[in-house]
Design goal:
By secondary structure, the chain is an alpha/beta fold. It is 57% helix and 16% strand. The model has no long low-confidence stretch (mean pLDDT 86).
Length: 418
């Protein structure tokens, strides 16, 4: 048999998702692949597992969770020439398994192959493991860059170690070393990588094309007392110190090269961050300028509206004055016409009076004469009063017209000055 996939699980939904992704991750024939599971969940939940991988799934054992010992036992029961150790919370990308197999078989010194993992947000969470000055392991560029960051793509390369969440190696090599079961929570994967390098004198390789999604520690969080422990960290530090003390020149050079690549990648990340910061500052400045311009435009538009409103008010007032001037002009013309008509009537009355006097007989009745004179005097007084009233009305109209003309003149002068 070509390949045995080993997985430890207690969660049907996670295991089912991982099995589904296996169907697209390799083109190996059905009889060339087996999936062995160390189940530590309930019997009821075991029935909920959906195997859509296209390969046989065997619950090889039902043991309490302990990653190192569970995997060691599965490896003994495996039939495949190659072992793929995988977490149940991994979802593989298409062709990932085949890419890892090609890397392992094409590189003469390859003893173990790891892959490129990302979280659901697309951030890189694994592209190899390095060690700091205190000999503590850490994931390269963990959550600092996208999973497609140029530095972690491209050709396969040698790295100091890889995560046990996804690793491929030959079964015979694993059985020679196995996981160190002294680790309670984590560290057995790093220890195994150092064993491959120290005891087998082989290399650990990182294969970018062997990729998938992984939410770190999602499996551990479901186990009791499975938080990272300082005891495991102390053991890993001591193991790496031991490796460094006996490492040969090539091994030390590979570690130095991995650290140098990381430094270059971090410099590239910083340059990109500075460029993005500059671009962001330019965008902020542009937005602030747009905001200022917008405020200026608003103020200008508001001032224009106020000016137009004042112009309309002035125009309306001027129009009202012109209308009143026309109305007064028409009224003045009517008064003038009435006055002339009344003057003509008065002149006609005087003429008629004189004519009647001439037509009177010589023998005049004194009483009748007196009555006629009194009547004529009354008419004369009436017409004189009418004439005086018209003259007074004419003077008032002329005064009002002069006032309107003066007000219109002042308004036009103000408008010209503004």
């Amino acid at each position: 048999m070509r390949l045995s996939i080993l997985v430890v699980s207690r969660t049907p939904s996670l295991l089912s998702s991982m099995l589904k992704s296996v169907a697209e991750a390799t083109e190996l024939p059905g009889l060339e692949v087996e999936v062995l599971c160390s189940w530590n969940g309930s019997k009821e939940s075991e029935n909920e597992i959906d195997n859509s991988s296209g390969y046989e799934l065997l619950i090889a054992q039902r043991e309490p969770y302990h990653f190192a010992s569970n995997m060691n036992e599965l490896a003994v029961k495996a039939n495949g020439e190659l072992l793929l150790l995988i977490n149940d919370d991994i979802v593989l990308d298409a062709g990932s398994i085949d890419s890892a197999i090609n890397c392992l078989e094409q590189e003469p010194q390859a003893g173990l192959v790891g892959g490129r993992l990302r979280n659901h947000q697309g951030q890189l969470i694994h592209a190899g493991i390095l060690f700091d000055s205190r000999n503590s392991p850490y994931h390269l560029l963990d959550r600092l860059v996208p999973a497609e960051f140029s530095f972690v793509m491209g050709n396969n390369r040698v790295v100091p170690a890889v995560t046990g969440a996804l690793m491929l190696l030959r079964r015979k090599h694993f059985l020679e070393m196995r996981f160190n079961e002294s680790y309670k929570v984590c560290g057995e994967d790093v220890d195994l990588c150092l064993d491959v390098r120290e005891r087998l004198k082989l290399e650990v390789w990182y294969c970018p094309a062997a990729s998938g999604i992984h939410e770190s520690e999602s499996t551990r969080q479901q186990q009791e007392n499975q938080e990272a422990q300082s005891e495991d960290l102390s053991r890993m530090r001591m193991r790496h110190r031991q490796f460094i003390e006996q490492a040969n020149e090539t091994q030390l050079l590979n570690d130095l090269l991995a650290s140098t690549r990381e430094a270059e990648s971090l410099r590239d990340v910083e340059v990109r961050r500075q460029r993005e910061t500059i671009n962001l500052q330019e965008i902020i400045i542009s937005l602030e300028k747009m905001k200022r311009d917008g405020n200026n435009d608003s103020e200008k538009k508001e001032l224009d509206l106020q000016t137009r409103e004042l112009d309309l008010q002035k125009g309306k007032k001027e129009l009202d004055l012109q209308t009143r001037e026309l109305d007064l002009g028409k009224t003045q013309e009517k008064f003038d016409s009435d006055l002339k008509k009344r003057e003509l009537d008065l002149q006609k009355g005087e003429y008629d009076l004189q004519k009647k006097l001439k037509e009177l007989p010589i023998e005049i009745d004194v009483q009748e004469m007196e009555d006629n004179i009194e009547q004529l005097s009354t008419e004369v007084i009436y017409w004189q009063n009418q004439s005086n009233s018209l003259q007074l009305s004419r003077l008032r109209q002329q005064q009002e017209l002069d006032n309107i003309k003066q007000e219109l003149k002042i308004l036009r002068t103000r408008r010209q000055t503004t």
